[in-house]
Amino acid sequence: MRHGRLLSLYCMALYAFLYLPLGVMAVFSFNDAHRNVVWRGFTFKWYQLLFHDAELLGALLTSLELAAAAAAIAAVLGLLASYALTRHRPFKSREGYGALLDAPLMMPEVALGVGLLSFLVRAGYELDFGALACAHALICLPYTVGAARARLKSMGESHLEEAAMDLGATELTAFLKVTLPLAMPAIVSGCLLAFTVSFEDFVTSFFLAGIGIVTMPIKVYSMMKFGVTPEINALSVLLLVATFGLLALNAALASSRPRRDGCGP
Amino acid sequence: MMMTDATRRDFLKIAVLAPLMPALMAACRRADTRRVVNFYNWSNYIGKDTLPEFTRRAGVSVRYDLFADEEEMFAKIRAGARGYDLVVIGDYLIPRFKSLNLIDAVPSGTLKNMGNLAPRFRRPSYDPDETTIPYLWGTTGIAYNRRKLAKQPSSWWDLWDPKYKDRISMLDNVRDCVAVAMQLLRIPQTTRDPEDFRKVRELLLRQKPLVRQYSSSSYLNSLVAGEIDLAMTWSGDLFQAARDNPDLDYVLPKEGTYMWVDCLAMLRGSRHREDTLRLIDYLLEPEVAGSISNSVRYATPNAKAFPLVEKALRRDPRVYPTPQTMGQLQLHHILDPEQSEMWNQVWADVKVS
Amino acid sequence: MDRALSWLLGGRRPLASHLLLAPAAAWMIVFLVLPAAGLLLLSLAKNGPYGEILWTLSLNNYRRAFDPKYLPVLLRTLGFAGGTTLLTLLLGYPLAYFLSFRAGRWRNAMLIGLMVPFWTSALVAFYSWMIILGKEGLLNAALLRFGFISAPISILYTSFSVLLGLVYFYLPFMVLPLYGSLEKIPRQYVEAAYDLGADRWTAFRKVTLPLSLPGVIAGSLLTFVPCLGDFLTAEILGGPRYYLLGNLISNQFLMAQDWPFGAALTCLLLTCLVGGLWLYRRWDDQA
């Protein structure tokens, strides 16, 4: 089929576009320069440095914890909210809620950072990891809501839960045994988006990071003026390798388990 | 995608725990009660052993946070971020920090190393009552790529030369750009005449089509990568960039130029005043100040430290200008609010149009 | 417990809906609405000589925002946001289609593969783009090598590099919602179209495309709206001629230190966007 081949080729090209900078990044992690914009020779030293750089590894850990916390909060709040928005009988101010939940997308980052920081200071709250995680959950919420909402809405049209309840299940059982498993792909992809948004965020983090809280983006941006060293590339490469390793492991485990279907409509 | 058989109990557990997670994590991170100073500084702006040595000697640990952009740092502190004890700020920001009540005066009388500073840096115009302590200083000048330019630039006018179109970058900063335009037009910085500001605006707008970047940090990458060949720059920044491109050089324009001083300031509400003062006094010690200058390639205002600076650096007129050039260097004029507003207006117009 | 939760989920009463929405709404109110209200108040204040806030309330900052000199900034921003949305849509739709209809067992890997490039720092990605696009970069070297150009051309700090950066960073935000809505289309509908004699293209045009419209709209919103406030891309990949709304707003907070004016610009942008979105939702729910 020529058609199909053309489309696959196109998709491969698009992934090549997405991964081109990553390839460059990987190559330049062996660059013997401080400021990683021109090639100045091959070295392994950045990888060696990396394993002794407690500061950088600490920043990575902080970022991972932060993204996990923010994605978890956003996933739970987003699921509950989108369930009410899509599956409940229409009620007054539903559109209002919808617009409110999308609002963080529209706030220019710097304005959000300054506004939120001023507000927390005025409220007498001392900046800590919790404040930062809450702010990240805020910017993640639109993504988890968006993903869950689309899925739940279309599932509502298939009346599966109603069938379950006709068979004697309570709403809760139907939710846990039917809705939740069917919505799981959307919840997972919402979580992935949320995790990415949080992991990448610099501006909000910069303003809300209390003393001694350094995330990866804060660490990297602080190097902006005097050069982001290839050590950051090395770290990113290891992170990618770890991610792909985990994904491969997951795929291997999944294929060894008997496949249960039923997630597609 | 992955499918899990979520049992009711698991779901409830997650639903209850997830929102509590940040609080739990925060609880695990409770700050310890050791003696500590919270220091907020540029990255790459201190010697490698400076702070560990202080901790070893004084038994006070230093929590060292970094910023990449002075304006962002100012905005963060202004919005109310508290808890930093010591912060490095540029001279032109000091009057603003003061008028917003953001800093406490360093009781300079109590510092036993205060006398190490060169007389030139005592009671400066930007801070006559010595609320802050000079840390490092440098100049504003022109960076250029020797290999790409037929002849060495010598004047600010070279940044207006059409033959360098799209190879120029300017600092994204009101103070430096407007001041240079005024210098070229021979307008004194004390002016309030709208006609003068019209001329300044015109001069800067005439340059804009030639400019590839207005930037205070990322232009250094462009210089190293050969993307631009000519840039208005701060001295030490260029020397750090030149490590990755030996063709880069720095020149002070013949019209004369400005010097700037980065200072140590104690933030209002510091909870560790004693130890902060101890740290400032430590940074004023000749050996310490000298080693900082050696490792960051900026000039130290510390007269006693000067002989301890590496010979090559000490004799480099681009870092420590000759006495004759020193005479031509001036600090930025301290603007009153009305002037400041006019300067900002000109710059905003240039950026927007 | 069981009954209470069932009552909540059943949602036959508005109270149940409000309760289920309460945690998310409370989050929004505490961390967004209250700080935004602070900004609204701030936008009515006056910027003092040294950047202190003077609480003499007036609409002056809003009057300043309507100065015609900001019109080019607004138009330019709309142009870049619109262009990015259109490009990501055109580039992303075939990919989303492939993911949903063709990818088979590769689907999960490809979906995650779409996000993974963004788990590195954006700044590192920017650096890589500089290495690729620079005058002495890979692209110029390739073009020179194959004789397309005779001297290196400037690619960085042009509208092309800004657009490229924006498309690169927002592509996943377009593809995922598109994929989501394509995934929902019952496959029988498409088969029915074939059975009725439609060819591939007609089936796509008459069945798949219309049914995927919600995804198109959702993806466009997720791209267009954040683009309006984006400032890092233009700052790092753009030159002096690409000053966007996001740069204007963040410069008020950072460089000009004119917070009241920055707050006024923010409030205007928020009002337009939230209002627009509210209208859209009403229309969407009625349709």
Largest sheet of chain B: 11 strands, mixed
CATH topology of chain C: MetI-like fold
At the first level of CATH, the class of the largest domain in chain B is: Alpha Beta
How many strands appear in the DSSP assignment of chain B? 11
At the fourth level of CATH, the homologous superfamily of chain C is MetI-like
Number of separate helices of chain C: 14
Please, what is the average pLDDT of chain B?
89
Helix- and strand-based class of chain C?
mainly alpha
Report helical residue fraction of chain B.
25-40%
| Domain module tally of chain B | 2
End-to-end separation of chain C: 37 Å
Tell me the helix content of chain C: over 70%
Structural commentary:
- The complex is a heterotrimer of chains A (265), B (353) and C (287).
- Chain A has 265 residues and is mainly α.
- In chain A, helix 3 (54-87) crosses helix 10.
- Chain A is 74% helix and 0% strand.
- Chain A has helices spanning 2-28, 45-52, 54-87, 94-102, 109-122, 129-156, 160-166, 171-200, 203-208, 216-222, 230-256.
- Chain A has one domain: MetI-like fold.
- Residues 259-265 of chain A have low confidence and may be disordered.
- Chain B folds into two domains: 36-137 and 260-319, D-Maltodextrin-Binding Protein, domain 2 (3-Layer(aba) Sandwich); 139-258 and 333-352, Periplasmic binding protein-like II (D-Maltodextrin-Binding Protein, domain 2, 3-Layer(aba) Sandwich), CATH 3.40.190.
- Chain C has a single domain, classed as MetI-like fold (Orthogonal Bundle), CATH 1.10.3720.10.
- In chain C, strand 1 and strand 2 (53-54) form a beta hairpin.
Question: What is the compact description of this entry?
Answer:
The complex is a heterotrimer of chains A (265), B (353) and C (287). With 265 residues, chain A is mainly alpha-helical. Chain A has eleven helices and no strands.
Structure keywords:
A: mainly alpha; MetI-like fold; 0% strand; C: 287 residues; mainly alpha; two-stranded antiparallel sheet; 75% helix; flat
Topology:
The complex is a heterotrimer of chains A (265), B (353) and C (287).
Chain A (H helix, E strand, L loop, with lengths): L1 H27 L16 H8 L1 H34 L6 H9 L6 H14 L6 H28 L3 H7 L4 H30 L2 H6 L7 H7 L7 H27 L9
Helix pairs in contact in A: 1-11, 2-11, 3-6, 3-8, 3-10, 6-8, 7-8
Chain B lengths: L7 H21 L7 E7 L7 H9 L2 E7 L2 H9 L7 E5 L3 H6 L3 E2 L28 E13 L22 E3 L3 H11 L9 H14 L3 E4 L4 H6 L5 E5 H8 L5 E4 L6 E10 L5 H11 L2 H11 L14 H4 L8 H6 L1 E2 L5 H16 L1
Parallel strand pairs in B: 1-2, 1-3, 6-7, 6-8, 10-11
Antiparallel strand pairs in B: 3-10, 4-10, 5-8, 5-9, 5-10
Helix pairs in contact in B: 5-6, 5-13, 6-13
Chain C lengths: L1 H9 L3 H30 L2 E2 L5 E2 L5 H6 L5 H32 L4 H9 L6 H12 L4 H8 L13 H26 L2 H9 L4 H12 L1 H17 L2 H6 L7 H10 L4 H28 L1
Antiparallel strand pairs in C: 1-2
Helix pairs in contact in C: 1-2, 2-14, 4-8, 4-11, 8-11, 9-10, 13-14
